[in-house]
Amino acid sequence: MLLYPVTLTPDSNGTFLVSFPDFPEANSVGDDKEDALTQAVDALETTLSIYFDERRPVPLPSAADAGDAVVALPALETAKVLVWNEMFAQKLRKADLARMLDVHTPQIDRLFDLGHSSKIEFVEQAAKALGKSLNISLA
């Protein structure tokens, strides 16, 4: 999983403002720290979707200092981000990946839709087509 550091700032209303050092455009608010971290995941996924829509590489998490709050991107979304970044690094387009996988482009659109529950096997196929392997571990 990708663990992104977040900054939680209490405001005068007793709520917590959420910001991300890695994504200045991602912000959220929560009623308390727990709610702020829950809202942070949604803000992160929304921001990542914007990066996909704008065809930009997704920054990997910066190192969190001891005691800093972090937001864990779920495993499937992490895999999608890593495949996206590899596709971008190889200067490939979605249409190129579709041809490599012998699928229609809408299937690739769904692959990079963070709200779509893609099958992990398809993400693994995409990684393999890019010359990479998807590794999963239990920590």
TrEMBL record:
Could you name the domain of life of the organism this protein comes from?
Bacteria
Q: Which Pfam families match?
A: HicB-like_2 (PF15970)
Q: Which residues form the HicB-like antitoxin of toxin-antitoxin system domain?
A: 4-77
Protein's name according to its UniProt entry: Type II toxin-antitoxin system HicB family antitoxin
Species: Duganella rivi
